[in-house]
Amino acid sequence: MVSKNGVTMEYIPKTANEEKAMLKAIGAGSFxxxxxxxxxxxxxxxxxxxxxxxxxxxLREMWQLSRESYDTAMALSFMxxxxxxxxxxxxxxxxxSRSEFATSYTPYQAEMSQGLLQATYEYQTMICQITHMxxxxxxxxxxxxxxxxxxxxxxxxxxxxxxxxxxxxHPHYRSxxxxxxxxxxxxxxxxxxxPLRAGQVSLEDLERVVTGDIAAVLVQHPNFFxxxxxxxxxxxxxxxxxxxxxxxxxxxxxGLLKTPGxxxxxxxxxxxxxxxxxxxxxxPYVGFFATRRAFIRQxxxxxxxxxxxxxxxxxxxLTLQARExxxxxxxxxxxxxxNQGLNAxxxxxYLATLGPTGLKEVATLSLxxxxxxxxxxxxxxxxxxxxxxxxxxxFVVRTPIPAATLLRALASEGIFAGIDLGQYYPDLSDAIxxxxxxxxxxxxxxxxxxxxxxxxx
Length: 457
What we know:
Elements: E1 2-4, E2 7-9, H1 16-26, H2 31-35, H3 55-66, E3 76-77, H4 90-96, H5 99-102, H6 114-131, E4 135-136, H7 143-158, E5 162-166, H8 171-182, E6 190-194, E7 196-197, E8 200-201, H9 203-209, E9 214-220, H10 231-240, E10 244-248, E11 267-271, E12 287-291, E13 303-308, E14 314-319, H11 341-378, E15 384-385, E16 394-398, H12 403-411, E17 415-416, E18 419-420, E19 431-435, H13 442-453
Parallel strand pairs: 3-17, 5-6, 5-9, 9-10, 10-11
Antiparallel strand pairs: 1-2, 4-12, 7-8, 11-12, 13-14, 15-16, 16-19, 18-19
């Protein structure tokens, strides 16, 4: 028990009599009446549970169940679409396993945790270095929420109420943006999409929809299909009418491609999973968020700054933090109240381990493997590349049989061939999104190609 303000609070289950008194006080005849579950939705029978197991028996059963599942160490995977199987150096797990990091949460007396703050500061610094942006926050939940937060930030900065999103944006990201915008009290905020043409944003259509009342243009580069957008022209169109340019980028690609800063982007976001975080069945991941220094007071999330103490010694502190749970909600820039700190630390350790040369090498190997595989697959009768524009590590292939059928057949052979695009784009029901990283060997590519040949025409 604990005493607070002279009142004793007991953290123990309530007795039956206490439960009855509570139910009576709120006017419920029973606990079931309190829940008020319709009869048609009730189970109506006891749960069919297996007999109890000893710990030894349970571990044996869980091991047997785990052997029925595949992971990328057991199967050959060419899946991407926002979650990537890049190699993770052992330094990442070694640092993350230290107890002072593994159990850390963003502290409310932050300056007590100088080591955690320094690690986050280093993360922010490296995000700025790879994106060529001026300031970064201490990370957010994931790439999708980072992009949606960027849309809200653009609305605040421009005082405009329209957002234009490229239709080549990841469909899950588009759904998150729609959800965020639907919750705004200002119902006049509208969202429109720039149409596709051959796997890229149609510049002609984009020019028509980007008008003087647009707050921001949101573009993914490389896009969901792996294609490279014409970013210089998109940047010109956005800025010509006073809109902000928001870029969602694959951080690995920044080892080779021009950065958001070089494209004069106003906000750069992305999914940091590929930076030292495992695929983990879809999460937890980490979203990075960087912008111009002039916009820092409208940037969501926390920012760690370098400072000195009263004696002049260097130190770190949370700055500009009074924007979420520390302030009235109506004045906050976001409702984000944590920053996926351990995942951000993984990204920092990964980037520190690789350095600029290592990041470039990972990007180069991924690019080379993807283009090698694309060329060999396109040579199989019945298969063809869906688009002709440049791509990074992902590409779209048209298949001679329905994509879903092909993927099921190859999965039975231990090959996860890619993503069925028909579930997102009906006109691509015969197409799959294929991804290669630096982990794929020539043997892997050959096995994949030989498997596909059995389904060629």
